[in-house]
Amino acid sequence: QVQLVESGGGLVQAGGSLRLSCAASERTFSPYRMAWFRQAPGKERELVGSIRWSSGSTFYADSVKGQFTISKDNAKNTVYLQMNSLKPEDTAVYYCAARVVVVGDYNYWGRGTQVTVSS
User: Fold this and answer.
1) Exposure on the CB side of residue 46, measured as CA atoms within 13 A
2) Residue 13: left if φ>0, alpha if ψ -120 to 50, beta else—which one?
């Protein structure tokens, strides 16, 4: 079973930046799409953005467009989330996810990494 492991979370001041990483445990893993989700306290989990593994095409939620960037390194089987100009409302647990089908649920999930933005 493929495991996704996030890293890079932490505490940062408003206006700062963080880069999250998500590495897949198997080098042969070839998802259709990988995504970042986040869940803030008392709120539902929301999609931040995603990237198609083969082409690198990306999608972003309106709330982070122009602020966050998703990229990948196929050789390292790793996806990144570059977060700039962070705001307190970006505070959440960030999860990496992957799906192997074109349409359907994300069926591989990481355990999450906490991002806290102080004002």
Assistant:
1) 15
2) beta
